[in-house]
Design goal:
alpha+beta, 330 residues, 15% strand, four-stranded antiparallel sheet, Nucleoside Triphosphate Pyrophosphohydrolase
């Protein structure tokens, strides 16, 4: 980036984005409401999850828990079960905790930036998204889509993994923001990143900012992000049958996937391996995991830390996603 855009340039980009969004926006269910509850649910679900995946979860969630009070009164099992498959279950627990706090406060939802940032699971992005869309607060969002649009538009080669770069990009997002319609503006920039300014093979000719984009000749060089190779791991889980039932255990508090059900790790001190069954791969944070399933038997008796579940019982309970995937491959 050679020099900062002028205020005139920021205004021109705002106008181009607004005009494009009016004709190009997708009809998404959470865009048909200004209900803070529905918008919060959508924004929390959309963190690290694609729109096409979120839509059916969002619609089922609102049928099961249509407002803060119904979510507050739900059991943790029902909340986690409704979230099953979306991953990052802390999001669901934060939503549940938030609902309880709002119900306890008489249903009043905060609507200032400071109050929003203090809510469970609300960081700068969620506070800006909910604040701008539900309440019209002049807060600019900064997510992966917005960072991609800005780094390409400005040909910014700073590493977006660095906090200093993100702080700088937030300043640019603030400058680009339309304070008169922050809801539409924020959704426009995110929509541009999600549908046109794609990570690979961006459709630059359809972009309303193409004429002024400093990175348009080499868009896939932006954003610059230092990457750490995923560490490879192997896990072996035991499939121990009793008739049509399979031994499962619920993950304890303080461990990954706590509260969810899973197959036990194969333990040669307690189990005898009978035969290999299946293998799946999954990724979690910095790890690339190969999970192997083996048919096994207890050497003595089953421990008290789990129980045999029938197929119908396993469908009713919330399972860790890789273990659900493994179950279906079996």
């Amino acid at each position: 980036m050679k020099s900062l855009p002028t205020e005139k340039q920021w205004r021109a980009w705002r106008a181009s984005l607004a005009k494009w969004y009016r004709s190009a926006q997708r009809d998404l269910p959470w865009r048909r409401t200004r209900d803070p509850y529905a918008i919060t649910v959508s924004e929390v679900m959309l963190q690290q999850t694609q729109v096409v995946t979120v839509i059916p979860y969002y619609e089922r969630w609102l049928k099961s828990f249509p407002d803060w009070n119904s979510l507050a009164g739900a059991s943790e099992h029902d909340v986690i079960k409704a979230w099953e498959g979306l991953g990052y279950y802390r999001r669901a627990r934060n939503l549940h905790a938030l609902a309880k706090a709002i119900a306890a406060a008489g249903g009043k939802f905060p609507h200032t930036e400071e109050e929003l940032r203090g809510l469970p699971g609300f960081g700068p992005y969620t506070a800006a998204a909910v604040g701008s869309i539900a309440f019209g607060l002049p807060l600019a969002v900064l997510d992966g889509n917005v960072m991609r649009v800005l780094t390409r538009l400005l040909a910014l080669r700073d590493d977006i993994a660095r906090p200093a770069t993100r702080a700088r990009l937030q300043q640019f997002a603030d400058l680009l923001l339309d304070p008169n319609d922050p809801a539409s503006h924020n959704q426009a920039v995110m929509e541009l990143g999600a549908t046109v300014c794609l990570p690979r093979q961006p459709m630059c000719l359809l972009c309303p900012l193409n004429d002024d984009c400093a990175g348009r000749s080499r868009p896939e060089q932006f954003p610059v992000k230092s990457r750490v190779a995923q560490e490879k791991r192997t896990e072996t889980v035991a499939i121990i049958r009793k008739g049509k039932s399979i031994w499962c255990e619920q993950v304890l508090e303080g461990k990954p996937w706590h509260g969810l059900w899973r197959f036990p790790d194969f333990d040669p001190a307690r189990m005898t391996q009978v035969a290999p069954l299946a293998q799946i791969k999954y990724g979690i944070t910095k790890y690339s995991v190969t999970m192997q399933a083996v048919s096994a038997k207890w050497k003595s008796h089953a421990p008290a830390s789990g129980r045999y579940l029938t197929p119908s019982e396993m469908e009713q309970l919330a399972f860790a996603a890789p273990h659900r995937k493994l179950l279906r491959s079996l």
